[in-house]
Amino acid sequence: MQDEYRTVARAGTHETEVNRSRFLCSLAPAATEREAQDFLAAVRKEHADATHNCWAYVIGADAATQRAGDDGEPGGTAGVPMLQMLLRRDMRYVVAVVTRYYGGVKLGAGGLIRAYGGAVGEALDAVGTRTRRRFRLATVTVDHQRAGKIQNDLRATGREVRDVRYAEAVTIGIGLPDADVPAFRAWLADATAGTATLELGGEAYGDA
User: Fold this and answer.
1) Strands 52-59 and 160-166, bridge-based pairing
2) pLDDT tens column, 121-157
3) DSSP SS3 for 159
């Protein structure tokens, strides 16, 4: 798994103009290829009168799925430069749709490549991005007497408390970078006089 990746902070649209043509780049997070395709369909419906709705998306922390489409523009002048811009910015789980309203001036292949790639780059700057970092899911099991203080200490040190369950003992689900596990294990033993246990689970991604 990748240690971290970047994605868009939210869905959003940014408009640029090149030689009287309007380029509207719509960006959205997409967890799956279906989500990306649904977003593309929604933008196409909203801008059904546009000259072109070109698109690109990258799914997977390792960019395993990469797709792009020119929607009638000359081959390789729209979708591919959009995709290249997403990859150059290390963007993952993201879909970009650039809607073009033709302004009467032909841009040529080079102009189109710059316009479509540039529209994505400017939109990423305008909408904003966030970093997602890989971490280890872990469960702390502690007695009721110490559970409140442990939870407070975890939050005070910026640890993400994912869930808390109360039974005979209290289980606290957290996320830890792999490199922090040995130090955390030692801290937990010290904080609970060795009475708490730490169980490591799978891996996931969370905001850095």
Assistant:
1) unpaired
2) 999 999 999 988 888 889 999 999 999 899 888 888 8
3) coil
Q: Residue 65 is encoded by which pair of tokens?
A: 């799925």
The pTM of this model reads 0.72
> Is the CB of residue 82 less than 8 Å from the CB of residue 98?
yes
φ, ψ of residue 112 in degrees (nearest 5)? -65, -45
DSSP 8-class letter at 6:
E
Q: State the DSSP H helix or E strand holding residue 145, giving kind and residue range, or none if neither.
A: helix 144-156
Cβ proximity of 1 and 137 under 8 Å: no
| Residues counted in the chain | 208
| DSSP letters spanning 56-106 | EEEESTT--EEEEE-TTSSTTSSHHHHHHHHHHTTB-SEEEEEEEE--S--
SS3 9: coil
Hey, is 116 helix, strand or coil?
helix
Alpha-carbon distance of 45 to 125, in angstroms, equals 25
Query: Residue 133 corresponds to which tokens in the numbers above?
Result: 């970092």
Q: 207 in helix, strand or coil?
A: strand
Residue 45 has pLDDT above 60, yes or no: yes
pLDDT number for residue 86: 96
Cβ neighbour number for residue 150 with a 10 Å cutoff: 20
